[in-house]
Write a structure and sequence with these properties.
4 helices; alpha+beta; 139 residues; single chain; five-stranded antiparallel beta sheet
Length: 139
């Protein structure tokens, strides 16, 4: 269960969220441009500060009343940014290995991910040699 009770003042409005989302499935977040979708995802991932409370499967990630704010790298969240933020100094395999090391152990392993995303032939390549679509798959 992902529980969100958040408040984030934005330029044009105050983003206020009170949601309880069952985990284990797919969730879509829809809304017009500028409605706070990316900001909400950044708050959940720990990339943007906000006030309120975020819990995931009984782990507290944010509780501003009790001064708890778990950093992004310690939250069990994977984010694929639009610009495919990869480590340019690492190969594709190096980037995949970086992600695998941060896997809490309950998701698919490196071999499965590479097979599903068809990355096997890309593993030795440098990030600079990838197309935009290849970068997105690696991210």
């Amino acid at each position: 269960m992902l529980e969100l009770r958040l408040h984030k003042p934005l330029a044009d409005f105050d983003l206020q969220v009170d949601l309880h989302i069952e985990t284990g499935g797919v969730v879509a977040l829809l809304g017009p441009s500028g409605s706070g979708k990316t900001t909400l995802l950044n708050c959940i991932g720990g990339f943007t500060s906000c006030s309120g409370r975020i819990t995931f499967d009984n782990s507290i990630w944010l509780d501003s009343a009790n001064k708890i704010d778990i950093p992004a790298h310690r939250r069990a969240v994977a984010t694929v940014f639009q610009d495919g933020r990869l480590f340019e100094h690492l190969s594709v395999e190096g980037n995949v290995d970086y992600a695998v090391k941060r896997n809490p152990g309950n998701g698919p392993g490196k071999l499965e991910v590479c097979a599903v995303l068809n990355l096997d032939n890309l593993l030795p390549r440098r990030i600079q040699a990838l197309s935009g679509g290849e970068r997105q798959r690696v991210a």
